Amino acid sequence: MYCLNDKQIDFIINDISARGVEMEALQQNLLDHICCIVEQNLEAGGDFESFYQKTVKTFYKNALREIEEETLLLLTYKNYYTMKKTMIISGIFSALTMSLGIFFKFMHWPGAAILILLGVVFLGIVFLPLMFILKTKEKQSKKDKLIIAIGTLFGILISFSILFKIFHWPGANLIGMISIGILLLIFTPLYFFTGIRNPETKINSIVVTILLVMGCGLFLSLVNSRPSATIAKSTEISNQHLETTYFYASEQNKLTYKMLLKDTSNSKDNLIELNKKCKELCDEIEGIKIKIVQTVEGDSTLKIITFNKLTAPDNYDIPTHILFNKNGEAKSVLNNLKTHLKSLNAFVLNKFKQNSSSIINLSNTKNINLGENATWEKLFYYRVPQTCILRNFTQLQLEIRLIESNCIRR
After folding, report:
1. What's the CA gap between 310 and 366, in Å, rounded?
2. Backbone Cα Rg of the chain
3. Which is it for the CA torsion 194, 199, 200, 204, positive or negative?
4. For residues 190 and 150, is the Cβ–Cβ distance under 8 A?
């Protein structure tokens, strides 16, 4: 067994200090460990310095000061490993749920929305903030920390922008544009000019910058691939005009009824029954329209449909959920409407000798996208954007008033 003398002990403590370990308590702990190893493993009369150099190398990978850095990190963040483990688990969870959610959405399977929501929330609220905290502690330069902070902010904003876009929530484009602005105007120049000055990171900085710019371009082209503002405005005006025409036709029919019912020579029973059926049908359709708008827009107080005030005209998930079940079959709200429409066609044919089924055609129709025999319900209302569904329902109301007008003006 080897016995260390005071001179050798002083050598060890001085060497530990020279290697970058400044904490006195840590120096003493390392001294105790090294002394124990030397005294237990070095034979009497052995080469102390050679054995010491071999021993001290077992305490680090690149430099002994790594121990102090790790100790400081652990003292600063007592829950460092818990945070690191949570970051990894949340990252894996968010990646899996988002991937599954996107796959489910492509396959039109139930549960896609909740999976995507969970994935983005865990990414933006758990994974990215934890990554920012841990990464900033690994960097000494304030500029590096600033780059990480800006990159994290961009990641959070772009994640929620895409989430808002998927769910057709208001503010998606604004959040997206802000995040792209941060990336292109702040993060990319800062990252590029910081990295290009270092020969070791020069090529990597150029490549990553090119990829970032190309990614932004692809994202912007995707956002702007929807119909132009002119087309959207034209559709909005056309739909509102159709709504106005329906109300005008309704008022004209009311006036005609008043005149006919005053004439005692006419049979009033059929007219009264026709008026009742048409009014109930139009009210039923109006109720469906209001429910769709209230649910999509998130405002239960809406009672009048105004197309230029729709915040999510392209939303088709919610209307489809209201009208169809998860298997793509029409719910009772559409089945009942179809039954009432058939009843109107039969009544008009029987009492007024008019074939209104040529106007309100409820038969199956050949459609390439929906199958050889697409039902009336699927053709007009399945996975159709809110603005188009409302237009189709208004068109149906107008057709009912047209049939009514043809019958009472005979």
Report:
1. 32
2. 37
3. positive
4. yes
46 and 125 housed in the same domain? no
List Cα–Cα distances, 207 to 146, 193, 195, in angstroms: 21, 13, 11
Same structural domain for residues 25 and 160? no
* Pairwise CA distance, residues 38 & 42, whole Å: 5
Q: What percent of the chain has pLDDT over 90?
A: 27
Whether the CA torsion 276, 281, 287, 293 is positive or negative: it is negative
Whole-number Å distance between alpha carbons of 154 and 169: 19
- CA 115 to CA 96: how far, in whole Å? 9
Six-digit token string for 247: 């109300």
Residues 183 and 50 in one domain: no
Are 37 and 172 found together in one domain? Answer: no
| Helical ranges in 19-141 per DSSP H | 24-41, 48-57, 65-76, 80-106, 112-121, 128-138
Distance CA 207, CA 50 (A): 47
Q: Is the pLDDT of residue 78 over 70?
A: no
Q: Give a yes or no: residue 1 inside a domain.
A: no
Q: What is the pTM for the complete model shown?
A: 0.53
Three-point CA angle 273, 276, 282, nearest 5° = 140
Element of type H or E holding 38: helix 24-41
For residues 86-102, give the mean pLDDT.
90
- For the chain, the average pLDDT equals 84
Do 202 and 108 sit in the same domain of this protein?
A: yes
- Write out the residue range of the structural domain in which residue 175 sits: 81-223
Alpha carbon distances (Å) from 68 to 64, 71, 226: 8, 5, 56
| Tens digits of residue pLDDT in 154-206 | 889 888 888 887 776 777 778 888 888 888 888 888 888 888 888 888 888 88
Dihedral over Cα of 52, 57, 62, 63: its sign: negative
